[in-house]
Amino acid sequence: MIIAGAGGHALEVLDILRFTEYLNPAVYGEDISPFWPSELPALNRLDQVEDWLSSDRNFVLGVGSPKFRKKLYQEFTQRGGVLHALRGPQAVISSTASTSGADILTSAFVGAQVTLGLGVLVNVGAQVHHEARVGEFSVINPGAVLLGACELGSECFIGANATILPGVRIGEGTIIGAGAVIIRDVPSGVTVVGVPGRIV
């Protein structure tokens, strides 16, 4: 197993892996956290990744940026890697949700008939409620709440403790600031902050 990414989020991913089944994963990144355990392998070149994947094809995404999640996914799968979806302890996931290829971290909630795209991150304590749809590689940060039947495009970034009201649609690549409350549809590629949310 390789953790693709080597900053602070990778440390949280390491804890989840150790809690579940993988005790000694490698990490890949150019700037490896100074807190990374020195006894674990650290890779900083893609040729090293390719060698590692020849014996263990599994990898997890260890970054919290939508664009970097997508980039690392592409680099690793092009070299034969297979994405392993994380499931944090005490996460609650409906049996009717579609979550293949998404990371759902500790104490997160994913409700009935939710669809999470490939590479999505539902971070610690975030909530995605019934019938919501989340596009590929979007990131829902700690404490954020997506209420029923809302829809996110691909590569969105939802800040910590933001709230998206029911039925709201958010275009791809949009950033929602921490603590914002989104009460109406938002176009692609913009940044929204405040209560109620406004484009800046």
From TrEMBL:
Keywords, comma-separated and alphabetical: Acyltransferase, Repeat, Transferase
MF annotations from Gene Ontology: acyltransferase activity
All copies of domain PglD N-terminal, residue ranges: 2-75
UniProt binding sites for substrate: G64
Top-level division of the source organism's lineage: Bacteria
Active-site residue numbers: H130 (proton acceptor)
Pfam families per UniProt: Hexapep, PglD_N
Site positions for Increases basicity of active site His: E131
Keyword Isomerase attached: no
Similarity comment: Belongs to the transferase hexapeptide repeat family.
Protein name, as recorded: UDP-N-acetylbacillosamine N-acetyltransferase
Source organism of the structure: Algoriphagus aquaeductus
